[in-house]
Amino acid sequence: MLRHATGALDLDSCVVMGIVNRTPDSFYDGGRMDTDDVIERALRLVDDGAAILDLGAVKAGPGEDVGEQEEIDRLLPLVEALAKDAPVPLSVETARPSVAKLAFGAGAAMVNDVSALADPDLARVCAEAGGALVLMHNGEQVRGRPRNPRYDDVVVAVIDEWKRLESIATKAGVGPDQIVVDAGLDFGKTTFHSLEIMRRLEEQVAYGRPLLLAPSRKDVVGESLGLGVAERLEGTLALVALGVLGGVSIVRVHDVAPALRVVRMVETVMGVRRPEAPIRGLWE
């Protein structure tokens, strides 16, 4: 169970986190700035089977700076509306303690921090709210492109960074049952690094915290297949399937319905869930 600010989430089987961005420049679903439109998309993802919604107001990749008040103005209306209307926990993707505090006050359950606790006070805010916290290895890349990143062993580097971040978080009062880890596909990594991370999920699961996999339409898919962002669904779903086989707890995607079908199919093959309607050949 993952404990968060509004309850607890069962992670005995893999769950799907739906991506909801209110940004003009996100690489795939940017341009959605109308509040009602974004709320409608979020509720549609819940209908599609999202068990968590991840709300973002600042692009994680390259882009113009977004001030604190602008981030608040974009994000808080979503949290307030969806806390009332969406029957799932809300995650907010922010690096700012002030934004996280307001989001928790409005009904958020957790923080998805891609900054690697650039402001360690973010952990204290999570602890005080009882919120869950996603700790991601970013290879020192936020809102930028990696330039020839090098690792002796990328998976070892990821796990070492998780240890460092978890130490900061637990000292601030975040409980072990409130922590999720993310290797950060593409962040500060070449496609070869991201593929190595996918091949070695077992080592990451063995770290002992719920593992979040965020492969949705990323460059690791595009560069592997030579495809643009709009054509990367099948490659994304392949990584989702490999993630479930590898033991990840959460998959973060734009396309919730097909991802959930993949999760359920893989888990059925694995024997961790029963078929929905197994009647073939079972008649006299």
Strand percentage, roughly?
Answer: 5-15%
CATH class bucket: Alpha Beta
Strand order, largest beta sheet:
3-4-5-6-7-8-9-10
SSE pattern, N- to C-terminal: EEEHEHEHEHEHEHHEHHEH
Keywords:
single chain, 284 residues, alpha/beta, TIM Barrel, 8-stranded parallel barrel, two-stranded antiparallel ribbon, 10 strands, 42% helix
Structural description of this entry:
The protein is of the alpha/beta class and 284 residues long. It has a single domain (2-270), classed as Dihydropteroate synthase-like (TIM Barrel, Alpha-Beta Barrel). 42% of the residues lie in helices and 15% in strands. It has helices at 35-48, 68-85, 97-106, 121-129, 154-172, 191-199, 201-205, 219-225, 233-246, 256-270, and strands at residues 2-4, 7-9, 15-21, 52-56, 90-93, 110-113, 132-136, 179-182, 211-213, 250-253. The strands form 2 sheets. It has an 8-stranded parallel β-barrel with strand order 3-4-5-6-7-8-9-10, surrounded by 7 helices. A two-stranded antiparallel ribbon has the order 1-2. The longest helix has 19 residues, at 154-172.
